[in-house]
Amino acid sequence: MPRLTPAAEQERRDRIINAALDCFAERGVHATTMQDICRRSGLSPGAVYCWFPGKETIIEAVARQRHQHERELLDTALHAADSRTALHAFFDAYFDWLADPAEQHRRRVSVLVWAESLVDDRLRSIVGDGIAQRTLALDAIRSGQAAGTVTRHADADAITRLALALIQGFILQQAWEPEVDIEGYRRALDLVIDALTPRQAD
């Protein structure tokens, strides 16, 4: 059998991942079988198992891609001149991402994975890797407080947790209500950022 080109390999991998996400979204992670994923992808079990030996490895692949992109968004934002600009830049980029219909579909599966992770240690580890990324912003928030550009009325760790909750909360609401007003949410989020980063921090 001729070796697949890199482009063909990527296409096949994406095809399996997208088939799995469709199955997860329709049936849930626990109820979906690898056979379901094979049928939906139109590939043989051998072709699918060559790339992914189980559902968890597919979820891990999706999570790795997401975590990498989140890291890139954070790194870009943290190069801003001040904390207010950095927070606005990060959330603007993140919610542009969440506005993408393809990402909305993937995030629906994220909510299912969050629930399953409460009773599945492997999935919990995957979810935990994403949550842990908030610590990347912790030093920046502390530096902003020291420089007087972030309010000192809240603990830096609590501020990063609030930021994470604002993202996770929207994702959950969007899963329930796909037509939720993302622009209205963003405008309200801007007010929260401005309150945390007053022109003259307290």
In percent, how much strand structure appears in the residues? under 5%
What integer value in Å does the Rg equal?
Answer: 19 Å
Q: So what's the overall shape? A: elongated
CATH architecture of the largest domain: Orthogonal Bundle
Instruction: Tally the structural domains.
Output: 2
* CATH fold-level name of the largest domain: Tetracycline Repressor, domain 2
The string of secondary-structure elements, in order, is HHHHHHHHHH
Any idea of the CATH class of the largest domain? Mainly Alpha
Assign a percent range to the helix content.
Answer: over 70%
> Biggest sheet: strands, sense, closure?
none
Distance between the termini: 68 Å
Number of helices: 10
Low-pLDDT runs of 5+ residues are none
Structural class: mainly alpha
Let me know the average pLDDT: 90
Count of extended strands: 0
Descriptive report:
This protein is mainly alpha-helical. The protein folds into two domains: 1-53, Arc Repressor Mutant, subunit A (Orthogonal Bundle), CATH 1.10.10.60; 61-196, Tetracycline Repressor, domain 2. It is 74% helix and 0% strand. Helix 6 (101-117) crosses helix 7. The chain is elongated, with a radius of gyration of 19 Å. It starts with 5 loop residues before the first helix and ends in a 6-residue tail after the last helix. The model has no long low-confidence stretch (mean pLDDT 90).
